C-alpha cells in the first residue's frame, strides 16, 4: 500500500519540477510608469512572446532614469535582475503579468509538505 503512495509522491514531484521542451512565454514590453507596461498594466494591451531557449524566466523590473521610473517585462535569466533598481522573476507561463510576482516553487513546496506530513 505504501509503495503506491511513494510512486504517486515521486510522480507528483517530478511533474511539479519537470520543464517541458516548449518555449516559455512571457509578456514583453517597456514603458514609463503611466504607460502600458507600468502601474496600470493589462494583459489585453500586451501580446505574449516566446522566449529564446536560454531565457528561462519572466522578468518584471523597474529602474529610475533621470527622475522617471521605467518598467519592463521580458524574458531573461535571473542574473539580469542585477541590472535594475527593482526586479522580480518567475518561471511559469505569463507569470510576469501581476504587480507582485509570486515566489517560485511555492506550490510544489506546499504539495511536498502535505504529502510528507500526511502520507509518510
From TrEMBL:
InterPro entries, sorted: Sleep_regulator, Snake_toxin-like_sf
Protein name: Protein sleepless
Signal peptide per UniProt: 1-23
GO cellular component terms, A-Z: side of membrane
Protein's cellular compartments: Membrane
Keyword Signal attributed: yes
Membrane topology according to the record: Lipid-anchor; GPI-anchor
Main location: membrane
Keywords in alphabetical order: Glycoprotein, GPI-anchor, Lipoprotein, Membrane, Signal, Transmembrane, Transmembrane helix
Amino acid at each position: 500500500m505504501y509503495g503506491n503512495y511513494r510512486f504517486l509522491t515521486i510522480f507528483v514531484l517530478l511533474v511539479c519540477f519537470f520543464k517541458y521542451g516548449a518555449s516559455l512565454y512571457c509578456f514583453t514590453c517597456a514603458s514609463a510608469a503611466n504607460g502600458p507596461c507600468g502601474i496600470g498594466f493589462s494583459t489585453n494591451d500586451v501580446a505574449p512572446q516566446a522566449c529564446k531557449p536560454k531565457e528561462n524566466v519572466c522578468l518584471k523590473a523597474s529602474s529610475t532614469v533621470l527622475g522617471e521610473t521605467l518598467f519592463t517585462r521580458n524574458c531573461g535569466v535571473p542574473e539580469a535582475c542585477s541590472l535594475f533598481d527593482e526586479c522580480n522573476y518567475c518561471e511559469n507561463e505569463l507569470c510576469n503579468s501581476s504587480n507582485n510576482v509570486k515566489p517560485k516553487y511555492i506550490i510544489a513546496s506546499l504539495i511536498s509538505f502535505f504529502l510528507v506530513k500526511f502520507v509518510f
